Give the backbone structure.
Amino acid sequence: MKKLFTTLALFAGLSISSFAQHCVGLDSVLITPGTGTVAGLHPSSDSLPCAVVGTVISDTIYFTNFTSFSGFTVQSLTIDSIGNLPYGTCWASNKKNNTFAGGENGTIYVHGLNGAAPGQYKLGIFIHATAGAITLPPYTNAETIANLRYYVRVTCHDSICPQLDTVNGKTHMYIAYAACPTTGINEVANDLSNVSVVPNPFTKTANVSFNSEVEGAFTVKMVSLLGATVSVKEVNVVRGSNEVSIERNSLSSGIYILSISNGNGQITKKVVIE
């Protein structure tokens, strides 16, 4: 059982908010499961790269479920919730019901704009499972049962990813890092205001309008929930009012992340294509 819960704890490899949001509009069929043969999950928490404040996270975690524990064959394991995902992000698996058979390969995908403060976060995962005579009820906390912990680190732009503090992390949900300087994403957010997309949702074309305190070359980009760049447009921004059109072209219906950036950082907005 201990080995099984080790795998479960590793599911929570990216994270900040009490219970994480499940991604809405993300087609689970598009998330490809791994091809592993050894029970476990990669990467481990100490090798997971630091998330960066103010950037879009698109991380994939592959795993192989255990076939048995405590002498019992694993029939099924369901992920009920992944706790403490970074503010602005959501999670999904490659199964619509988030349920995996013993030995089955699967994938956890985490996506969204990371709004978390810099620091180290202790994560959690809530599951239920059936293995022979053993049944774990819904929302069983893997840490409470198996005393297991998993961590994610969030840093500023151009900061070194610190080593995990597993000693203090046992009793601290959050260990703060130095605050980010007022550059990068914050600088762009201060330069741009009144960002809107009309209509939103849209079917063919939408207009992106915003006010800018600076002028220069900016990039307007759309990214899918699977992290693929689907549209890029270079624009010359002027001080004052600006307007840029975005086209659907052959894009599928769903949720996309629109970003406006100038090399110092980016500001993002969710858009929906019907």
Remarks:
- The mean pLDDT is 79.
